[in-house]
Amino acid sequence: MSSKIRDYNKLAVDILNELGGENNIVTVSRCATRLRLVTQHTPDHAKENIAKLPGVITVVEKGGQIQVVIGTHVDKVYNAFTQLINTDKKVTNDNKANILNRVIATMSAVFAPFVYVLAASGILQGILILIKLGFPKVESTSTYKIFDFISWAPFFFLPIFIAITASQHFRCNIYIAVACCAALLSPTWTKLAELIKEGAKIDLFGIALSETPYNSTVLPPLFLVWLLSYLERFLEPRLHSIIKPLLMPLICLVIMVPSTLIAIGPITANAAHYIANGYNWIVNLAPFIAGGLIGAVWQVLVIFGVHWGIAPVITENINQYGQDSFQAFQTIAVIGQVGAALGFYIKTKTQEMKGISLSAFITGLFGITEPAIYGVNLRFKKPFIYGCICASLGGIVAGFFTPYYYTYAALPGPLTIVNTIKPDNMSSFFGVAIGSAIALIGPVILIQIFGTGETIQDNFNNQKTINTQDNNPKILLDEVDITSPMTGKALSLSEVPDPAFSQKLMGEGIAIEPTDNHVYAPFDGEVTAVFENSKHAIGLTLDNGVELLIHVGIDTVNLTNNEFAYHVELHQKVKKGDLLISFNPDAIKQAGYPLITPIIIVNTDQYQQISLTDKTQVTVDDIIFNIKQ
Q: Exposed end of the chain (fewer CB within 10 Å): N or C?
């Protein structure tokens, strides 16, 4: 519904509840604009209910994932969401998706977290291209060379990034994964690979090695980490706990690195090479057809979240040939939707849609089109269709100029067109520039002629939203006092050893170091969030409108051995003084977790003033919050 997000933390809690709670979550990840969730099953009406939440643009179920499209604030929702669940838990019931869906979900989970780093690298390379074009002599200076290797570093060490994100996705030890992939980037192996390429015979255990270098590769480190996860699970129950910390990385290193050099690396690298060559063969055969097709359908693939699957082709082209045509056509497709958002902004009469479309247009300049697609273009259909048509025409025209990108841009769009510049192939830049102009201007013209697709009812609903969107459903008429839910030592949030709380990312509040083992309802209300796997926290919506999160201990989401017990259920009405949670302080301390309990007002931004107690010791009868509307 794309209304203003007043509280990212509440949105995270609401999404979790609609999806059936912590036990139903298999994996969680994010990309530039989406919270990507894999669940064991999708509750009835969950997609529809989540789509109606303030701050959610839409919900897409594709590629084995529930993709909650939020926009550029997704990082805040993701950070809040991961605070609510045990992100390290092992889940075995995750094979329901077909192979294609699982591959797409994997590529998304692996690339999305560091896509902005690669995008920054691409923009820096574009800037260097312009500088070199205007001042050719600068290329020989040490300053230029330093910034040049800075711009290439994320791409060169791509296997390290993949090791980090893939280990999180496949749930294996991140440090072992990084160590294995780092070995593949060793300068020693690079020299050996060059010798093999020159004809030298180098073997490992009598098996001849191939000349495959692993800098900038995607599939070799990805498959390495995938197989590493199985090796770790095999070794886990078979190694004694005393020697496991040492033997686990030792065994994994001596098995996985040689296995990659002998088989995994050459096989997967060749597979990526053949896939890229297949695409290049099609482009060389009829580049204008490829350009028209990619321009037309690329943003359709974005709708379904399957666009990450092309990443290995692009990176392989850049790695092997130093150029890639797909990003050239991809850029034109992106600009088609940017132009549609701009055309909508110019044509629409409603202030709300002007704000949404302008924001979507600006975001699209950075290569992120989900806000434009879901917030405007697809919502009213016509702009999306016009954007695809004009992008297809732009791709056809660009195809006659043999366009290429000369670096991996990660988020192709208007700002990365300079990456098409190469002095001995300036037609590449001109082709993409002309195609992009068609894709940008075409939808603007078509929308002015044929309209935005809005109806009178749409305009009425938009105006109604403007008049009501700032009204809170629950209003405090004056002020209210909230008592402590537990007895203990009162602390400021700055003393909590967790930045999510100490930096007040979750909201205003205090912390209590308990001296007993009970949590009580501080006011009449309803239980609105529970965490069945760990039972370490609880969310309450009080009858006065205050939304509380009571989080017993720090990182206690990892405890699942009955250290906590609920005495209430989700959606249960409670009275002040009702017992909510009991816990075993000794077991929690023995496991190494602090008992400090943050008590957070989740909807902090709805209140003008929140006064905190100045007492150092509190009981359940003491007021800890005085809240004014």
A: N
437 and 498 in a common domain: no
* Rounded mean pLDDT, 57-86: 79
Active site residues: 31
Mean pLDDT of the chain: 85
- Phi and psi for 617 in degrees, rounded to 5? -125, 130
Q: Which residue has the tokens 């697609």?
A: 373
CATH of the domain at 561: 2.70.70.10
Question: What's the total number of domains in the chain?
Answer: 4
Q: Is there a single domain that holds both residue 255 and residue 321?
A: no
Q: Domain boundary residue among 284, 312, 336?
A: 284
State how far the Cα of 77 lies from the Cα of 75, in Å rounded to an integer. Answer: 5
How many whole angstroms separate alpha carbon 313 and alpha carbon 219?
10
Q: What is the pLDDT of residue 34?
A: 78
Q: Which residues pair with 529 in a beta bridge?
A: 539
Q: Please give the average per-residue pLDDT across 517-536, as a whole number.
A: 89
Going by the DSSP 8-state scheme, the letter that residue 596 receives in this structure is: -
**What does the pLDDT look like over 115-132, one tens digit per residue?**
788 888 888 988 998 898
- Could you tell me where the DSSP H helices lie in 264-368? 265-285, 287-303, 311-321, 326-347, 351-364
The more confident residue out of 211 and 256 is 256
3-state helix, strand, coil in the chain (%, to 5): 55, 15, 30
| Co-location of 437 and 492 in the same domain | no
> Do 456 and 599 have their domain in common?
no
Residue numbers of the domain that contains 379: 286-467
The pair phi, psi for residue 98, each rounded to 5°, is -70, 170
Q: Which residues pair with 60 in a beta bridge?
A: 67
- 134 falls within a domain: no
- Residue 304 confidence (pLDDT): 64
Q: pLDDT class for 514, splitting at 50, 70, 90?
A: very high
Q: What angle do CA 424, 430, 433 make, to 5 degrees?
A: 140
Q: How far apart are CA 511 and CA 502, in angstroms?
A: 10
